[in-house]
Amino acid sequence: MEPDWDDLKVFLAVARGESLSAAGKALRRDPATVGRRVARLEEALGAPLFVRAPTGYGLTEAGGRLLAHAEAVEQAVARGAEALRGEAAGLSGQVRIGAPDGCANYLLPQVCARIHAEHPGLELQIIALPRVVNLSRREADFAITVSPPAAGRLTVQKITDYRLHLVAHRDYLENAPKISALEDVPQHPIVGYIPDMIFDAELDYLAETGAVTVALGSSAVSVQLGFLRERAGLGIAHDFSLPFVPGLVKVLPEAVALTRSYYLIRHAGDARIERLSRVGDMLIAGLRAEVARLEALT
User: Fold this and answer.
1) Residue 133: helix, strand or coil by DSSP?
2) What DSSP line would sit under 49-111, residue for residue?
3) Who contacts 22 (Cβ-Cβ below 8 Å, separation ≥6)?
4) β 216-217/234-238 pair status
5) What does the pLDDT read at residue 88?
6) Which of 55, 116, 176, 221 keeps 20 to 30 A from 272, CA to CA?
7) DSSP readout, 220-252?
8) Locate the HTH lysR-type domain: which residues (predicted)?
9) Angle at the Cα of 261 (from 105 to 258), degrees rounded to 5?
10) How far is CA 229 from CA 1, 52, 179, 236, in A?
11) Is 194 in contact with 219 (CB distance < 8 Å)?
């Protein structure tokens, strides 16, 4: 018996969720039913597709070979559905975007709102996580990262550079010890990421401040800006976030000036899907324009 598309959907869900329960949730089926479908597929193909362990389901060598073919079928089905819907005129369907919370809070809402205004049939979802979104598990269709991935069957496009500076609330600076050089910074409380929760080396800004500890830390950029808004100390902030927090000003802008980059990541095969390809192009263009607009206000 040759596997049909429904068999492959079950296989993909288990491969990505690494458990019957996660696959069942994604498919809206009972985990026991998912387990029976996997067993039936393995019997039909005459090879084990998964290694069962207490920690979950891992792909065997045969399962790894089937994965690429199953994803190719998935992409072909998606392209066919788009052609039937006539999406050359207007896009529709769900698109999920994972991004660091700075981008998710201060850039993506404006960009996605404009895309949706042009394509009201789209369902755009933003996932803001203090980690890199796992595309292999299909947590999202796109991931925006601050470092390009080192491995994987992925398409990587640089979106834009963005700038960060040392900042503080002007009221804090009026009442705190004077800051005229980088050597003065360690006298002040530093706001930043929790050091052992930094998930990308590009987010480790502490050394740039000349300080050795973070007095007020959070894994979320929005919380860090909240500390700074409350006159709690100094911190590194994205220039594009400053228009959202009135009162924050740059400190020693010549001495502490950082440049980082955003990258758009997707599965390599997804670039051939019209809907995702067009949304990806709109995300890149929109993010570039929004970073430039907001940075020009600071």
Assistant:
1) coil
2) -EEEETTEEEE-HHHHHHHHHHHHHHHHHHHHHHHHHTTTTS-EEEEEEEE-HHHHHHTHHHH
3) 13, 16
4) unpaired
5) 47
6) 116
7) -HHHHHHHHHTT--EEEEEGGGGGGSTTEEESS
8) 3-60
9) 90
10) 64, 50, 18, 13
11) yes
Residue with tokens 């020009």: 296
Judge contact between 263 and 154, C-beta under 8 A: no
Helical packing angle, 5-17 and 61-85, nearest 10°: 120
Neighbours of 86 (CB within 10 A): 9
Instruction: Please state, in angstroms and as integers, the Cα–Cα distance from residue 47 to each residue in 50, 53, 86, following that order.
Output: 9, 17, 40
Average pLDDT, consecutive stretches of 10 residues, N- to C-terminus, the chain (298 residues): 79 87 88 90 89 87 83 71 56 89 96 95 87 66 88 84 97 95 94 89 86 92 97 97 97 95 85 80 95 94
Tokens 């020693």 found at: 252
Report which of 59, 67, 131, 126 is spatially closest to residue 95, judged by C-alpha positions.
Answer: 126
Q: Is residue 38 within a helix (H) or strand (E), and if so which, with residue range?
A: helix 31-45
- Domains of the chain, first to last: 5-84 (1.10.10.10), 91-160+261-295 (3.40.190.10), 162-259 (3.40.190.10)
Return the pLDDT at 238.
Answer: 97
Q: Which residue has the tokens 């998964």?
A: 50
Q: Which two tokens stand for residue 139?
A: 């947590």
